[in-house]
Amino acid sequence: MPTALGTKIRNLRKDRGLSLDLLATRAEISKSYLWELENRDAANPTMDKLAKIAAQLEVTTEYLLDGGNTNPTDDVVDRAFFRKYQEQSPETKRKIQDILKIIQSSEAKKE
């Protein structure tokens, strides 16, 4: 019987169209280990592994560990995005900021 953590990982992985193999590769863990996390009741990943999985699924580690919520809230998605943003190069950050300005300008024109 899978844990709440395993169920969340599997559901998020499938929602994002990722295979076990692809998520395992991106998270730098073995496919068999990921399968065990999703399907076994004694899963106990390290925080490093959990953080890598969360980053690839675009959620926070806190969300994965919270046994209650089954769908990530907007706040969880926002925090995961901001963490990704912080890891970007200054040039990439500038491009993201420019895109946001264009979107905001477009929205202002609609009003």
UniProtKB/TrEMBL annotation:
InterPro entries named in the record: Cro/C1-type_HTH, Lambda_DNA-bd_dom_sf, TransReg_Diox_bact_type
One Gene Ontology cellular component annotation held by this UniProt entry: cytosol
Membrane-spanning ranges: none
Recorded superkingdom: Bacteria
UniProt keywords, alphabetically: DNA-binding
Record domain HTH cro/C1-type: where: 9-64
Family annotation (Pfam families): HTH_19 (PF12844)
GO terms for MF: DNA binding; DNA-binding transcription factor activity
PROSITE patterns, per the entry: HTH_CROC1
SUPFAM superfamilies: lambda repressor-like DNA-binding domains
Protein name: XRE family transcriptional regulator
Organism (species): Massilia glaciei
